[in-house]
Structure formats: structure tokens, C-alpha cells
Amino acid sequence: MQGEVFIENSTKTRCMRRLVLLLVLLSVAVAQTEVLNTGSATLSITIAGSTPKEQVLYVPNEDARQTVQWPQGIDVQTDEEGNEYVNVNGDYDYTFVVTVDASYPRIMADDSFPVKTGENDEYTNDSAYIKPSDPKTHQKALDITKNSHTMLEAVRDLAMWVNTYIEYNTTYWGPINPSTVVLEERKGVCDEYANLYSALARSLGIPTRIATGVVKTGSTWQRHAWAESRVKNVWVPVDPTYGEVGLMNAFHVKLYAAPTYLLYQFPQSLEDISVTETMAAEYDVPLTVDASLSSIIVAPREKFSLSGTVTNSGDSILMPAYYAQKTVGIELLDSFRQNLVIHPGESKALEWDFAAPFGERDEYFIIVNGPGYDTMFNLTVNPGLTAGEEEEFKIIEFRSIISNSTLMVEADIRNTGNKDVANLQVSVSTTLGTVQKIVDLRAGEETSVSFTYPLVAGTYDVEVTVEKGSVKTTSYESVIVPEEKSKSIFAPVVELVQEHISLIYIAVIAVVLIGVAMVFVIPSVEGLKEPFEEREEWAKLVKLRKRREY
């Protein structure tokens, strides 16, 4: 009886652990699916507040994606960009019913790339925070799109690069940084993502504008900025922060779109906007996904893949994003997101590579979701199996950073095999020379290797190579070092002076004050001493005379 109870409890415990594990994973998947896979929504949006003087209040505007029911009696006007607004003075309180269909705008045609006859207008030129004329920005855009064959592919590639390049950092809430600063600092929030993407796109002749509004993140709503790029007269939505292009989830509500930010817009705080969801549904798009695991039973640290195809049976170009999520232990060897450009009647491949865990438990899960698809795959790790050893590595990313008097190249290297690798040779070659380093990587380990060069003005082809024996992988990019960034041999002295300039100012002022004291103050004090010294001598004479008189 006791044995039976033990077995029953053991089975229950095991099942409970699996259930908890599954629920934890599913909670993450559901949270992402709820937002990213929301294809349509009806929202009640209230904008209320007060202003002491007349202000322009931008309100939800109608476009290909969203329709708006206006409150009665509201005097809606339209600006030169086609955005709706009202003039408010004093208290205001408006409620709008907005219906968003994320399957729009319909993209019926693509365009050739590179752009042959680039436009020259406010959507391709410099603006307050978007600097496409910057040489480094243009060169970076060329590097990113070197394998892009159409305009939509270029838009996607630029957006995905920005999504992974910038580190989301909430300390950047507040003043908006221009694209040139973002390219250098690699940090920011949605404004910085949108600025850098827009500058890169414009530098290649792709007309691009800024859009702002509100967006749902998890279970909360917040102000947000994204971009729109014009392809064949269609403004394609691009959200580099969330990694969405073309099909951008329905929890984006646009308030305006313009060549740059409209800093005079109201309301200026999220507290003035409240959003109530009355309806939300997943995407209803003509996409069919067929995917499977290469193996459902694997050995510890064995490599496997999840692959399939996505077919577009509709009459317009679709740009879906699909996401792979996995339980802790499984190593994803690729980006968790794959963004596709699928023309009508076309099929595109989906594929993720994984490495199995060491077998801490026997069952694992992988979930793939995206427009019209949400499937969980079961994976069993059998500790009794042995995986064939594979020595494999790859360059995850490398970047060139201009800082002070040096050009620094950082490369992120990952051991994607299931075997520890020793004496891995990492080298960086430029016209300034070749530098090598030796690293060791355990199976699945990732490390960052950095190299520095003296800063000299010019354009350089930077090539990063990782090799061991006959296995070799290479990546490269072009880097522009502007003349003003180039430093002379006295650069370290100059930088030291700049770094401690305040202390130097204090020291100089102190020296000047001491000099003034020596020239003017000290002689004056010495002069003042003379009468006192004479008085003391007179006192001595008086005393001596009195003694003689007695």
C-alpha cells in the first residue's frame, strides 16, 4: 500500500512539474501571442486634460490600417501631412472608437533595389533628428543591405539590424537623440530606434517618415514611436523596436505621421490617454505554415532543427514575423525571430537551429507562433544516447566603434557545436594592420573579443576571421573615420587635458591669485609693518630715557 502511494505521488509530482513547466512557457508564449499576433482590435480611446492656452491636440487619425468614430460636436481639422487634430483651450475630454486591421495596408507591388532614381524631398533629406547625409550612416546602410534584392527586403533588413543593434535603455526616456548619436552609443528607446532606422533608409533613397501614437506592451499601454517607409506609393509600417515590418500588430494606434517629430503636440503625458479594449482577434491572413522538428528524440548536446515553409495564397505581398520560444536548457543558435517577405503564390522557408541541453530532465518544449500559426513541439532528451562531436563556431555579430583616439572592433563569437574548442584563432584585418587573439570556448559558450587601432581618417574594410584548422568563417564591413575624428600623436595629451579641464582651470586660477598676491598684497603688508616697528623702537627709547632720569 505504501509502495502504491509512493508511486502514485511520484507520478503526480512528475506530472505536476511538467504541467508547471508547460504553464510557465505558455504564459510567456501567450503574452507574446496576445500582442504580436493581434491582427485586429476595436479600442475605446479617451484623451482628456487641460491646457491654459490654445494648443494643437493630435487625435487618432484614419488611414489604411485604422478607422475612427469621432465624438459628436468635435471640430476635426487636417494638417499638411494629412493628420487629424483639434484645437483645445482649457479642459478637454474626447472619446474615440478606433478599429485597427493590421492586415492593411495592402502591399500590391515591390520595387527594385538599390534605388535607381532616388527622391529628393522631406522624406529622404535630413531633419532635426534624422541625418541620412552622415557618411557613416550611409556606409552602414550599404553594408546591411548588401544582400537585399528588393525595396521591401531592404526595409526589412534595415529594421531587423536596428532591432538587434540598439540596447533598449529606459534611462534614455526624455530628450530625443539624433540618429548620429544613436549609431555611436547603441542605446535608446523607441525614438532612437525609429530615428536610426529612418536615417539608414533615407540614406539609400527610401522615403521614410516618423509615426507616433500609443502601443500595448504586455498588459499596459504607453506612448510609442515607429516609422513608415514608402514603397510603390504605399506607406509600409516599420517598428524596429518590436521587430515588425509590414504586418504590425493591431495594438498600435497612430496619432500622427510626419517627416520628423511634432514637438508641439498634445497630450504630452500618457496620463492624459486611457485605452479600453472592446475586441481583439488574431491575424486572419492567407498564410499556411507547415513545420516540424528534424528529430523528436535527441542526445544531450545534439544539434537539431525546426524547419518548414510559409505559403502565401493571397493576392498581396505579406511580411509576417514568426517567433521561436523554448524551455530553459535548449540553446537557440539563431535569432528567435524570422521576418519574411512573401509574394502572392510564393513559399518561403522557416528554419531554426538548436542544441539540445545536457539532459537535466527528459522533456522539453518549443513553441513557434506568428500570423495564423501557434504550435508547440515536444522534444525528448535521452541521456542514453551519444551525439556525434561537432566542432563548429560562428560570428554572431561584430561592430566597429570610434572612441577617443582609437578604432575599436568588437566581435561576438559563439561555439555552436557540441564540443569544446581550444586555440580558436580570431583575427581582425584592416589597412591599418592585422591583429590576432587566441580564445577557448566551451560547447555553447559565447564570448566577446575586442581589438584596437589608432584612429586615422579614411574608409576601411574591416574583416573579422575565426578559424581553426580547415574550419573558417569570415565577416566584414566598411568603416568611415571622418577627418575630425582622426587624432594626431598628441591626442592622448589633448584628451587628458580635456578630461581634467575643470581641475586645470582651478589650478590656473590658483596660480594667478598667488601671483597677484606676491606682486601686490605681500609688499603692502611689509609696508604696513614699518610704522609698528618704528613705534616699538620709540617705546624702547622712552624706557631708556626714564631710567636715566631716575
Explain what the structure shows.
The protein has helices at 2-36, 135-144, 151-165, 179-185, 190-203, 491-499, 501-549; strands spanning 38-58, 66-69, 77-78, 84-101, 167-168, 187-188, 208-217, 220-231, 234-239, 244-245, 252-258, 273-282, 287-293, 297-298, 303-312, 321-326, 331-332, 337-339, 347-355, 363-370, 373-381, 393-403, 406-415, 421-430, 433-441, 446-454, 458-468, 471-481. It is built from seven helices and 28 strands. The chain is of the alpha+beta class. A hairpin with a 2-residue loop joins β27 (458-468) and β28.
Low-confidence stretches: 1-29, 266-270, 487-499, 525-535, 544-550
- For the secondary structure, the number of strands is 28
Globally, the shape reads globular
Percent range of helical residues:
25-40%
Q: Please report the number of helical segments.
A: 7
The first-to-last residue Cα distance is 132 Å
- The computed structural class is alpha+beta
Strand content: 35-45%
> Mean pLDDT score, rounded?
82
